[in-house]
Amino acid sequence: MYSIMVDNWLKYMLLTLIAASLLSTSALADCECGYSVNATSDPEHIVYTDIIETNFRTVQNLSYNDAWEIQTSEFPYDPTSGQYGRIDELRNVISNPLIENSTWSGSGTLGPDAGVQIWTRAGIPTNNLVPMGEIRTSRSDILYGSIRALIKATSTNGTCGAFFWYYNDTQEIDNEILSRQNNPGNNTGAVNLILQSLASEAAGYNAAETPTFDTYPLPFNPADGFHEYRFDWTPEKISFYADGKWLRDMTQNIPDNAGRGYFNHWSNGNPSWSGGPPNVDAKMTVAYFLAYFNSSNPARLSDYKSRCPSVAGTHSICTIPEYNSTQPFFFTEQKNMTNNQTNASGDATSNDSGSVMVGPLPQCMMLLIFLAGLFAVL
Ligand SMILES: *[C@@H]1O[C@H](CO)[C@@H](O)[C@H](O)[C@H]1NC(C)=O
Ligand SMILES: *[C@@H]1O[C@H](CO)[C@@H](O)[C@H](O)[C@H]1NC(C)=O
Ligand SMILES: *[C@@H]1O[C@H](CO)[C@@H](O)[C@H](O)[C@H]1NC(C)=O
Ligand SMILES: *[C@@H]1O[C@H](CO)[C@@H](O)[C@H](O)[C@H]1NC(C)=O
Ligand SMILES: *[C@@H]1O[C@H](CO)[C@@H](O)[C@H](O)[C@H]1NC(C)=O
Ligand SMILES: *[C@@H]1O[C@H](CO)[C@@H](O)[C@H](O)[C@H]1NC(C)=O
Ligand SMILES: *[C@@H]1O[C@H](CO)[C@@H](O)[C@H](O)[C@H]1NC(C)=O
Ligand SMILES: *[C@@H]1O[C@H](CO)[C@@H](O)[C@H](O)[C@H]1NC(C)=O
Ligand SMILES: *[C@@H]1O[C@H](CO)[C@@H](O)[C@H](O)[C@H]1NC(C)=O
Ligand SMILES: *[C@@H]1O[C@H](CO)[C@@H](O)[C@H](O)[C@H]1NC(C)=O
Ligand SMILES: *[C@@H]1O[C@H](CO)[C@@H](O)[C@H](O)[C@H]1NC(C)=O
Ligand SMILES: *[C@@H]1O[C@H](CO)[C@@H](O)[C@H](O)[C@H]1NC(C)=O
């Protein structure tokens, strides 16, 4: 009798321990507690909860894609400015998907450089509007993040190719590549790193005299192959990178509202900025967009709390891999690394990474298993 009671007591204790260990393993699929710049064991790291990754090389037609919006805005012509206006046109954004997905680089169905093409059209416009292309993320809840893009800029003189984050004209994080700053002779170039601010507004949106402007020399020509541009944005600072190498930090004029990711390619004829307009059509190609970010959306914040009640389990936070020029990594192309993320892959033709429900349900099931075990013992 006594020994049976002890036996049952031991079983009870054992089940309690098993249940406790299961409950503490709160994250069930990988990365449910986020994506981190540097490993969480490193002295410095940042964790972001949400993800949007678009591999433009496998997107068949960006016009049918939930994650992106092709813009049709007009930046009107002001005859007093001495510059042209600009017009965003659908025809200037063209998907050029890989013929064979397994070859990461190479030609697309339309010829060299698979990805999404963004064009600035040639010539002096009779209506004073230079035709350009522009796309932006559908989501406007990007508030802090590590945001990256693989871009081949144009070699045609007279355009500005931009990869940026935007909330409004005074809260904007810019990487702008001016093709007139390419140096094909010695294979170098520059990227303009800019935070638009109240100070740049006061100067007529000329950030050049503000502290958050830098024409940063690059050890490569942005038109010679694909290169990765990146910024890591926290409330304290923005760190800019190119090809995985740190360029510089900016600690003033840090935006604090949520906004969207953008690409555009334009010219307004301003000789001290874009130059141009170009005398032949100019093409910029974007191969990918990666955003690991925190969301300002209350629904996404509560989704995060449910799928990650506490950070536990070895894979609950995933480290974002280092830039790899030969083999990029996409969490959205792995199994179980983007559960409960929405619009994560930018691939409207597959829903495989956006809608798996995990979180409270499996935990409830564990509690049931535990209670069932307890009743079995009693
Ligand atoms: C994905 O995660 C779920 C929940 O933990 C698990 O049941 C499933 O086996 C995992 N699938 C893969 C392919 O790892
Ligand atoms: C990652 O670690 C490097 C040092 O290895 C450090 O310079 C950098 O600031 C860290 N990044 C973040 C986001 O903490
Ligand atoms: C490449 O991948 C995309 C996205 O998964 C798919 O829609 C497309 O059909 C694939 N192309 C080929 C040639 O398999
Ligand atoms: C998508 O397909 C339509 C119809 O063929 C075409 O007009 C449009 O340019 C394509 N969009 C992109 C982004 O390639
Ligand atoms: C993607 O985001 C857009 C804009 O927020 C939304 O309208 C759409 O329903 C989302 N799609 C999915 C599959 O979540
Ligand atoms: C941008 O938003 C900030 C914060 O709401 C505001 O202070 C600023 O005036 C806005 N800028 C413009 C150009 O509207
Ligand atoms: C671009 O055009 C400008 C103005 O015509 C010229 O001064 C400059 O040298 C050109 N730059 C390159 C890289 O061709
Ligand atoms: C490359 O060439 C440009 C234009 O001739 C020059 O201004 C620049 O200093 C050169 N850069 C290097 C690293 O030699
Ligand atoms: C993003 O959100 C996570 C989870 O709430 C938090 O730990 C992290 O500090 C946030 N990152 C930034 C840069 O605010
Ligand atoms: C890049 O990825 C390839 C293929 O996975 C790998 O062989 C190579 O070692 C990686 N390079 C770096 C610098 O991590
Ligand atoms: C993706 O999921 C949404 C929402 O459940 C659905 O409306 C849409 O038809 C799905 N798309 C595809 C291609 O399965
Ligand atoms: C994410 O998970 C929450 C519960 O944790 C669920 O309510 C929500 O519908 C899920 N969202 C998606 C897009 O799967």
What would your notes on this structure say?
One of its GO terms (cellular component) is plasma membrane. This is Glycoside hydrolase family 16 protein. Residues 1-29 form the signal peptide. InterPro entries: Beta-glucanase-like, ConA-like_dom_sf. Residues 66-297 form the GH16 domain. The structure is a single chain. The protein is of the alpha+beta class. The chain has a domain at 46-295: Sandwich (Jelly Rolls). The protein is 15% helix and 33% strand. The chain has 4 helices and 20 strands. The chain has helices spanning 2-24, 198-202, 298-307, 360-377, and strands at 34-37, 46-48, 50-55, 68-70, 74-75, 85-88, 93-96, 115-120, 129-137, 142-152, 160-168, 171-178, 189-196, 213-218, 227-233, 238-242, 245-250, 260-266, 282-295, 317-319. Strands 4, 5, 6, 9, 11, 12, 13, 14 and 18 form a 9-stranded mixed β-sheet that branches. A hairpin with a 4-residue loop joins β15 and β16. Mean pLDDT is 86; it is low at 12-27 and 348-378. One 2-acetamido-2-deoxy-beta-D-glucopyranose is lined by residues 46-49, 144, 234, 294.
Which helices and strands occur, and which strands form pairs?
Elements: H1 2-24, E1 34-37, E2 46-48, E3 50-55, E4 68-70, E5 74-75, E6 85-88, E7 93-96, E8 115-120, E9 129-137, E10 142-152, E11 160-168, E12 171-178, E13 189-196, H2 198-202, E14 213-218, E15 227-233, E16 238-242, E17 245-250, E18 260-266, E19 282-295, H3 298-307, E20 317-319, H4 360-377
Helix pairs in contact: 1-4
Bound molecules: 2-acetamido-2-deoxy-beta-D-glucopyranose (12 copies).
